Each structure stands twice: as structure tokens, then as C-alpha cells.
Amino acid sequence: MLRNTGKLAGCTLFITGASRGIGKAIALKAAKDGANIVIAAKTGEPHRTLPGTIYTAAEEIEAAGGKALPCIVNVMEEQQIAEAVEKAVQKFGGIDVLVNNASAISLTGTLETPTKKVDLMMSANTRGTYLTSKICLPYLKKSKIAHILNLSPPINLNPVWFRNHCAYTISKYGMSMCVLGMAEEFRGEVAVNALWPKTAIHTSAMDMLGGAGVEKQCRKTDILADAAYCILTKPKSFTGNFVIDENLLSEEGIKDFDVYAVAPGHPLLPDFFLDVDPNTLAMKMEAHGASSTFKEGKKVDRTIPERPEGAKHEGPQGTKQNAEFTAASPAGPVAETFKVIQGSINEDVVKATQGVYRFELSGEDGGTWYLDLRNKGGSAGKGDPPMKVDVTMTMSSSDFVKMFSGKLKPTMAFMSGKLKIKGNMALAIKLEKMMMQFSSKL
């Protein structure tokens, strides 16, 4: 790993989103030099699912050797940014470095992205980066260090990075365009660069996107902290660059990258925007026996007891359900999967989900299938459901079986273009959670 040189001793870093994850890792790296860290983040009270607050981060920073100023900052609120900058200048005398790390993400298609989510990503990512930079720049221009670092990707106009999550891509590229413009506008005064990981980084956000076990395909936040430290200790003449962490650290003499891996030796998941086509990526992952969940599903027990047509099926906890599958039902992997799903439905599942799903499947054993998790005891079967559909999912039959058996994470299927979703995205996410119950029986 990259050693600290002490070059940031006494410098003041204003880092957005520094209460956890990548932002905090960069803060802790600088703190080892004795830097002053302004923790500009939203989390003042403990989050119900995410670790850390601005105050717990401040404790860690000071324990590492730095000085901390925790500030409640939502980068969508100009006044909050301005107040935090003013506090930083009053306490530390100025600002030497700005790290625009705070970001929002929604990997949804154009028709499935609510306006509220579009506004969130544009405001937090593009507008937040622009505003925070604008407010900090008068102080940065007075600094001998004078760096802005945006956690954003190189701009890549390959349509593959737009087709599945257009709004998110635009918002992240907005951050990158700030680098292009400001690097030229303030050349010689303030260095402005972007940093992006070559592989997925293990954070709370990645856990939510990738599911259980995704950390095995990730590197630790340490690699970005080291790369950021390397950039921020360079002269102002190093500007306008779109830096990939591994490439930079290789140039700095780092040879052993296993030290950054969560699970050394395990295949790593490349990050977005680096021209690894998602479909190719998915195939490479599967070739290494890996997916977003990294969990091998159990084989379907194809010995299903026959029941008289019209008989009731006893589901878990004694819940009675209509028998959608009989001896005359279709055969094949999809049909067998639906049989197991049918046997797993109960009133608690229906009560917790409240959605009707239609699956348009191509390939062997394909066609239209449905899953009713809204009415009475729930049901599943072939054909269109006899009620209003909330979510339609389109994919191949083989990927459907993999998805429900736990071998293919729905998020990965969606990102790679294998799964298309129309309708209520909140219910689509609910189904993903319910799949954990189904997959244990497949």
C-alpha cells in the first residue's frame, strides 16, 4: 500500500459524504499526515441500516492523527454548503483540498426512474459537485496545495453505459464535465481531477446493489484512499486528468494489488464506464463461477408429488393455496421453478409483498408466466394473470431459473441488460428480497 509522506500535514480537506465508505477512507488516509478534515455529510443521527455518522467519523479521524470538523451538509442545499465552508475557514483558516465524493445512484431505465429520483441524482451528483466547488474555489485559489478531486468516471460515450440507467450516467458525467471545465478555467491556480476505481469497491451501497457475498468481487476502499492521496500530493500542474486507481498506483510502484482485495485471488468485478460490456462481464463472471450473489443455488427437486386436479396445496405454515400445477402442467426448468415458488407462497409473503408480477420469458420453456403476491393466499402459473399486473419482467428462461435459484442477482441481470423491467420499481425490489426465501428451496 502507498505510504504516507506527511505532505498533507496541516492542510484542510473539505470532503463530502465523508461519514462512511470512500469519503471516510480518504479522510483517514489524510488524517495520518495530521490533516484537518471537514466531514461534510448528511448523517448526524445513526442510520437504521447504514453504519457511521459525521461524529463517529470525526472520532476515527482524530484517533488517526488528524483534526476533524463534523458538519451536517446536504450538497443539494447551497446554504448548508456555504455555512460548512464558513465554519471550516473560521476553524482552520482556509481550505486546501475539496473532495466531491457525495453521490446518489439509481440503476433504473428511463421509464422506470421516478422524477424524484432523477432530481435527486442530478442535484446531488452534478449540481452538488458544481455548487460545492463554486463555494470552495475562492479559498482554494489562496492555497499552495489547491486541489479539487471528483469521484467520477472518464466520460465514455459508448451507448452501453446509457441504455440501462440513463439518468444516473448523465448525473455522473456531469461531475466529470465539471473536471473538464474547471481544470481549464482555473489552470495554474487550482488542480481539478477525477478519480474512478478499476474494480468494484466494497461499500454499503455495493452491498445493497450486489447482495450477499458481493464483497468477494470487490476491493477495499483503501485503494481509492491511496490513489486520492497520490493525486492530492501532486503539484497544481497535475490537472484535468481522469485517473483510474490501479493505473496510477502501478505508476507509483505498487505491484501487489491483492492487499486491496477483500478476498485475494477471487475474480474482481470491473466498475462501470470502463468499456467492459455488461454482457461480456456477466459471461466472464459466470466462467469464474461468480455472480453478484456468489451463491450456488440448490438443484430443483424434480420429484413433485402428483395431486388430484383442483386439490388444495398446503404451503408453509399450513397456508392453503390453489394448486396451479397438476400432473398436466407444463414440464421444464421454468415450470419446475414455478412449482417450487408456488409451494413457498404463504399469507405472510403475500402480505409483505402486495404485488402481481408477469414474466415474459424467451427460449426453452418460455412464454408468459405470472406470480400473484397480492391477492388472498397468492398464486403462480403459466399465462397472463387474471388481475392487474404491477411489474413486467422480460428475460430468457435460463436466466429466470438462475435468478430464482440464487445464481444470478436481479441487479446484475438488470445492469447487464439480461433483465428488462416495466412497472413499479419498488415492487420489483421487493420481489428481489423475497427471492432469498425462494432460492433456499431451489
Q: How would you characterize the overall build of this protein?
A:
- The protein has 442 residues and is of the alpha/beta class.
- Helix content is 37%, strand content 16%.
- The protein contains 14 helices and 14 strands.
- It has helices at residues 21-31, 54-63, 78-92, 115-140, 166-185, 204-210, 222-232, 245-251, 278-287, 333-344, 347-353, 397-404, 410-415, 425-439, and strands at residues 12-16, 36-41, 67-72, 97-100, 147-150, 191-196, 242-244, 312-314, 320-322, 355-362, 367-373, 379-382, 391-396, 420-423.
- The strands form 3 sheets. It has a 7-stranded parallel sheet, sandwiched between helices. It has a 5-stranded mixed sheet with strand order 12-11-10-13-14. Strands 8-9 form a two-stranded antiparallel sheet.
- Helix 3 (78-92) packs parallel to helix 4 (115-140) and helix 4 packs parallel to helix 5 (166-185).
- The chain is elongated, with a radius of gyration of 25 Å.
- Pfam families: adh_short, SCP2.
Summarize the structure.
The chain is of the alpha/beta class and 442 residues long. The protein has 14 helices and 14 strands.
Sum up the structure in keywords:
442 residues, alpha/beta, five-stranded mixed beta sheet, SCP2_sterol-bd_dom, HSDL2, mitochondrion, oxidoreductase
